[in-house]
Amino acid sequence: TREPQNVRQRFDGLRMELLAHKSSWRIGWLATKPVLPKKGVFDDVPDHSTTFAGGYLIMPNPLLHGGNISFYSAGYWKKRATYAHGSASEARLTLGHRWFGASKAVDYNEEFIVQVGSFGHSDIRAWVIATDTGYNLSRRRWHPRFALGLNIASGDRDRNDARLQTYNALFNNSAYSDKAGLVGPANAINLNPTARFSLGKNGARATLLIEWNSFWRTRLTDGVYLASGALLRTGVNNTARFVATQPTAQFVYRFDSHFDLTSIYTHVFPGQFLKNTPPAKGLDYVTTYATYRF
User: Which of 67, 73, 270, 290 is most deeply packed, by most CB within 10 A?
Assistant: First the structure.
């Protein structure tokens, strides 16, 4: 499943995973179709217009102690997709490489992705760089972690040529833009400083996360996309790069190992890009939900 807005994104398919070398190596394959939710019970059906399949390898990082690296590839086929470039059938291959782990007080998660394929009669050439590096003060009160995330996703250089450079995050969840899902990782530069505090005895009872997201367009010749991948604004005749600023506070209270309660508040301050193409009012997003784990 994925966690977009309102309704969870579910998949029907097959997944296999092999654990090797004392479980420090993991190799997996999957083939799925997203599910279209219906109003009844156990009546959801596969979306036959979209197919997703891929494989991955996770292994210890031979260069950094306490770290891991992964390599993965994924194929994505959609009968009709829409970008500022236009609408057409899409066949996209994603090749990715990720470094993640921790070394003493520093933790890191760095990802590099390229995409090739076809969009109608156009070629796809897209990429993304995503980084999140944190510093943990585990011996201080509330065990704070301060981090900085930077994500740069390619955008389309010319909507009239025979090449699409807009990055597709495939089945992205809304965590990229703090649950509100206003801006997704396509033609986007995202800078995200965060501060996390663990409260209660040994920091195990509750967590407070404060974030300050800022978004810009990577290419002025491409539009702005929602977290779902849908086109929000085409960007035609709009030369502004700055899209929005979005502070967020998230509080999670854990009652026990099974049950926790989450509350999130986000406010979106529109940037010049949105102001040039109204409506461009500020947006408040509030949600509270409970999670029970078996």
Answer: 270
- CB contact set of 184 (below 8 Å; sequence gap of 6+): 169, 172, 176, 177, 225, 226, 227, 228, 229
**Token pair listed for 31:** 């083939």
Encoding tokens for residue 252? 């999670």
Give the tens place of pLDDT for each residue, 153-186: 999 999 889 999 999 998 876 666 666 778 888 9
- Helix (H), strand (E) at residue 290: strand 283-292
**Is 126 in contact with 166 (CB distance < 8 Å)?**
yes
**What's the pTM value of the predicted model, to 2 decimals?**
0.87
What would the two tokens of residue 78 be? 């959609």
Pairing mode, if any, of strands 25-36 and 50-60? antiparallel
DSSP 273: H
Instruction: Report the C-alpha gap between 8 and 1 in whole angstroms.
Output: 7
β pairing state of 188-199 and 206-217: antiparallel
| Number of Cβ within a 10 Å radius of residue 277 | 18
218 near 177, Cβ under 8 Å?
A: no
Residue 202: helix, strand or coil by DSSP? helix
State the first-to-last Cα distance of the chain, in angstroms, to the nearest integer. 16
